[in-house]
Amino acid sequence: MACARRMRGMSRLVRTVRLALSAAEEAQQAPANTAAGHPRWVDGASWVEIVVHVAAEPDARTGFVADIRELDELTRALAARACAEARGAPSHAAALQAVARGMAEALGERFLLAAMRPAPGLLLALERDDMTHALICQRFEFAAAHRLHSPALSEEENRAVFGLCNNPSGHGHNYWLEPVVRTPLREGAPALSLAQLEQATLETVVQRFDHKHLNVDCEEFRQHNPTVERIAQVCFELLAPAIEEASQGQARLECVRLWETEKTCCVYPAMEGAAWAALTP
Question: Can you tell me the distance from the alpha carbon of 219 to that of 171, in angstroms, rounded to the nearest whole number?
């Protein structure tokens, strides 16, 4: 992928544009609240954030990779065109596809990808080099207890390495799990629906681990130290075949991101150079 290689001498600019997907005249009126975005939200509209990634060598005169005002105007114009063609609010995937294709046409190789946040904990993304597939990342949560203890280490070594996390009674975390799925787009809709993604993730991972003591209650960790790295790997290995089955082989689980705390996250498998892997819903 073009956006997966190191681009020496180039800078990546990321711009977030807030807007409502609506063809209503009221939504198009001059904005008064720049924090809320424009077009403004009106009844029946879908409020979203669109995140645009561009990369180039900064202009020698201005120092810009791109003028953010122009990015804003282009994003809004492309979204407005999608709304007009849909005679209302288009689907999120269709709107993002229209924006991404328009960006690629207008910006050429400077454009890397466009992403959309239509709701908290949900992100859709399209790469310049593959407009026929979307990346979907949705956040799930589960609470679980674990004890960090390795049978390969002595009791003293375990206490030295894992500290308080070696407490025999264990301790708990509120985990965030973020699967990243690549799915084909069929007439502007993902081949794997959000309902299918939710069902596969809830049945395969969340219900298995939620409110469990991983060392005691879960066979996957009876012989393995349940570190965030190991838990992320197990989540991926459980979920990947479920995603494939739910989509009849059309969608693929690229990776999972597991947050143990707001400061600690593991991605499995590691996605070297994949620009979208750092996107968070």
Answer: 18
- Active site includes 165? yes
Contacts of 237 (CB under 8 A, 6+ apart): none
Q: How confident is the model at residue 268 (pLDDT cuts 50, 70, 90)?
A: very high
Mean model confidence pLDDT for the chain = 91
Marked catalytic residue, from 157, 211, 237, 245: 211
The per-residue pLDDT for range 86-132, each reduced to its tens digit, is 887 788 999 999 999 999 999 999 999 999 999 999 999 999 999 99
Radius of gyration of the chain (CA): 22
Choose, from 133, 146, 260, 266, the residue flagged as catalytic. 260
Q: At residue 238, what are phi and psi to the nearest 5 degrees?
A: -75, -40
The CATH H-level (homologous superfamily) assignment of domain 1-128 is: 6-pyruvoyl tetrahydropterin synthase/QueD (3.30.479.10)
Q: Catalytic annotation on 211?
A: yes
**How does pLDDT run across 153-179, given as a tens digit for each residue?**
999 999 999 999 999 999 999 999 999
Q: Is the pTM of this model over 0.85?
A: yes
Token representation of residue 148:
């960090």
Domain 135-276 sits in CATH 3.30.479.10:
yes
Provide φ and ψ at 38, rounded to 5°: -150, 135
For the question of residue 260 being annotated catalytic, the response is yes
Domain limits, the chain:
1-128, 135-276
Count of other CB atoms within 10 angstroms of residue 30: 6
Strands, E, within the chain: which ranges?
11-21, 46-56, 111-119, 122-127, 130-138, 140-146, 171-186, 189-190, 212-213, 252-261, 264-268
- Among 165, 213, 229, 244, the one annotated catalytic: 165
